[in-house]
Each structure stands twice: as structure tokens, then as C-alpha cells.
Request: fold
Amino acid sequence: MKCVMKCAMKPALTDEELIQIYFLNQPRYCLEILYKRYHPKIYHQCLQLTHNPQQAQDFSQDIFIKVFDKLGSFQERSRFATWLYSIAHNYCRDQIRLGERLPTTAISAHLEMSLIDVPETLSKPELVRRFNLALASLSEAEQSLLRLKYEQELSLNELFTLPGLSLSAVKMRLKRSRDKIQRCYAHQLAA
Reply:
């Protein structure tokens, strides 16, 4: 009975103790506890920086993947929470800056811009045919990336894990692919 009382009264382990004791032998348990402790706070921090719930959720998941991947290199120069919040803040700021440098727009927005100058004599099936020709002018990789983004509706964060590319590379490839379709489609309409 004393052990039960003594164990029940024992305070929870600090983050640093948890990492020291469990990370090497029971990493899943260690990561699960840290995630439960900090996910709501990290999500809230991301939400404050992005003002977008979906983006905040994506960012917070990315942050935890990054932190768990680098947890073995945590050197306790600061508290774990400080280290985690620093990574979260830097990650969000980097992604926001990257998003400002490489804005993405839906392929339908590019198509609508093209349709503004479409001669009224072209039928809808003809427009679709020409768009499909423009799409076919892309490489298999470009087509695949566009289809995953717009037909499968995968997020940018899901996309960059599939082909093993960085998030910025995925954004750049999407932008270049959309631009190629736009140029090819506009060229077909001018012909």
C-alpha cells in the first residue's frame, strides 16, 4: 500500500528527465508523452503566426516530425520547452517567408485567367481538349505532381514527403508546371 501511495504522489518527470530515461529504450513512449504535453501549445503558437487553422495544423505536425527526428541531438543547453518553441517559431517564420516568395495559386485560377481571352466561338469541349493537350505537354513528373495537388487534393506538406523533395522544391515545381500549362494553353488559343 505504501508503494502505491508513494508512486501516486511522485511528481511527473520533467521533459529532460523523460528524454534521458526513455528516449533510447522506449522512444515511442517518450515521444508520445512529449507530443501530448506540447502539441496544443505548438499548434496555438503556429496559429498565432499563420492565422490559418489548417496551415497551423500542418506546421505543428511538421515541427513535431522535425523535433522527434532531432531529439537525439538535444543537448540540454536550455530547457526542452525552450528548444521546442524556438524550433517552432523559426519553422513557422521560414515557411511564411517562403510562402511570400513563392506564392501558389490554384490551377483553376490560371485557367480562368486564360478563359478571359477565349474566343466565344470555341466550345467547352474544345477548351477542355486544348487544356488536356497543354497538360500533356508536361513531363510525367510534372503531370503527376499537378494531379496529386489538384485532383487528389493533397496539401503541400503531404506532397513534399512523397517524392522526397523539400517543401520549397515542391512549390517551385508546382509554379513552373502551372506556368508551362498557361503558356502552352495561351499559345494554342492564339493559333
Residues 19 and 25 are 10 Å apart (CA to CA). The chain has two domains: 13-101, 107-190. The domain at 107-190 is CATH 1.10.10.10 (Arc Repressor Mutant, subunit A).
